[in-house]
Write the C-alpha cells for this entry.
Amino acid sequence: DIVMTQSPDSLAVSLGERATINCKSSQSVLYSSNNNNYLAWYQQKPGQPPKLLIYWASTRESGVPDRFSGSGSGTDFTLTISSLQAEDVAVYYCQQYYSTPLSFGGGTKVEIK
Amino acid sequence: EVQVVESGGGLVQPGGSLRLSCAASGFTFSSYWMSWVRQAPGKGLEWVANIKRDGSVKYYVDSVKGRFTISRDNARNSLFLQMNSLRAEDTAVYHCARGWELLWPFDIWGQGTVVTVSS
C-alpha cells in the first residue's frame, strides 16, 4: 500500500504571501508507460466536501485560480499558493491514484497569519 | 447541474447495519467509476470502496472487506454502500465521489452523510 505523508501539518501565511505544502509518497506514483504522475491535490473548507484543485501532479482543474500550482515527480510533490487570499483558508490534501487502495495524505491546514 | 447527493446515514449500535445511498444527476452515471470516501470526526480522508461502470469490478480498503458491499443501479443513477457489523471506528461522514476510471482523481463529491456507531 502507498502511504502519503504531508508536511507541515499546518502553516500560517500572511495575505499575499506564498504558501508551500509538501507531499511524499512511500513509492513512486509515476507511471512510466505514459509519464504521468498519479497525484492529485484537494482543498476542503469547513463544512464542505473536498474540491479537486490539481491532478496529474500539475494540471489545474477547470475554474481553479492560477495562483494554485502543483509540481514534483516520482515520490515528492508540492502544492504552491503563490499569493494567499482569505478564501484559501482550508485544509489541503494530496492523494495518490496510482494503485488501490487509493490513499490520501493527512492534510495541511492553511491559515492567515 | 452535475451533483451527487448522499443519504441514509444515522446512529447505529455496534454490530448493526446501515445502507447508504448516493443519487447522481446532471451526468451519465453509467460512464463513471464511483467511490465512497469517508472522514472521521476531525480526521483526514479515507477511501473506502469503488465500483466499475457496470458494477462488475469492486475494490475495498482492507478495514471494511467482508463487512461493506458497494453496489450501483445505473437505471436509477444510484450508488449504494451496505455496511454490516459496524464498529465505532466506522463513525464518519461518508462521501460519494466520481472518478472517470479506476485510477483517476475524484472530480465531483457529495456533501456526505453522517454515520455514527455508538451504544
